[in-house]
Each structure stands twice: as structure tokens, then as C-alpha cells.
Automatic annotation (TrEMBL):
One Gene Ontology CC term in the entry: chloroplast outer membrane
Gene Ontology molecular function, alphabetical: amino acid transmembrane transporter activity
Main location: membrane
Swiss-Prot/TrEMBL keywords: Membrane, Transmembrane, Transmembrane helix
Any one GO BP annotation for this protein: protein import into chloroplast stroma
Protein topology in the membrane: Multi-pass membrane protein
Protein name as catalogued: Outer envelope pore protein
Subcellular location: Membrane
């Protein structure tokens, strides 16, 4: 049970790193294509060391960010489960709300935005829990 909870944040690292890599690859290829069109060249694009380092840093930052968010959510959900002694959708709702509020507050958002992000986090987590029960 706990192993499954602990494995979830590592899955988020992969998703975030893949997203960052895909975005940067697109931008690099787009830049190379535009340069080749302007210079009227048919040379395949090369990735510079600077672009590669920038892409790698972005992947690491995205992975760390989303891993932290996932860890916060899983920890909160598990803590609520332990306190309540029940495993149901309400734990996901509280975990999502707390995670949404903390992440929003950490980004220096105003109170209204923090409340909206808490509601959104609770809704997304609860929906995911219900979908998980259906499958």
C-alpha cells in the first residue's frame, strides 16, 4: 500500500521531464527550420551545447516541481486516510484541496486565487479517484 503511494511521485518526474523535453525539442527544431528557411539551406538541424544544457535544466526543474507537488498530494492524502481510518474519495478531495492551496500560496497568489486553486485541486483529485474506482 505505502509502496504504491511512494511510487507515484516518481511517475510524475517522468511525465514532467518528457513534457519539458518535448517542448524544448519542438522549439529547437522550429528555430533550426526557421533559420534554414531564412538562409535557404537544406541542412538538418543541430542542437548546440547551450540548447542541450538549457533543455536539461528545464527538465530537471519540471521534474522536481511536479515530483514535489505529487509528494505533497500523496502525503496529505495518506495522512488524512490514517487520521480518518477510512480509504475513500474524501481523502483525495482533502489532499487535492490542501495541495492546490499550498502550491498556489507558494507562487505568491492572492487569497481568491488560492481558494480557486484549492477548489480546482479538490475537484481534479476527486474526479481522478472516482475514475480510478470505475476502472
Amino acid at each position: 500500500m505505502i509502496i504504491a503511494y511512494l511510487a507515484l511521485p516518481f511517475a510524475k518526474y517522468k511525465v514532467a521531464a518528457t513534457r519539458a523535453a518535448a517542448e524544448d525539442t519542438y522549439h529547437i527544431l522550429q528555430k533550426e527550420t526557421n533559420t534554414n528557411i531564412i538562409l535557404n539551406m537544406d541542412v538538418p538541424g543541430n542542437i548546440s551545447t547551450r540548447d542541450f544544457e538549457k533543455m536539461l535544466k528545464k527538465m530537471c526543474k519540471e521534474g522536481a516541481y511536479w515530483g514535489t507537488v505529487a509528494g505533497l498530494y500523496v502525503g496529505t492524502e495518506y495522512g488524512v486516510e490514517r487520521i480518518r481510518g477510512k480509504r475513500d474519495w474524501k481523502n483525495a478531495m482533502v489532499g487535492g484541496a490542501v495541495t492546490g492551496a499550498i502550491v498556489s500560496a507558494a507562487n505568491n497568489n492572492k487569497k481568491d486565487r488560492v481558494a480557486m486553486d484549492a477548489i480546482t485541486g479538490a475537484a481534479v483529485a476527486t474526479a481522478a479517484e472516482f475514475i480510478n474506482y470505475l476502472t
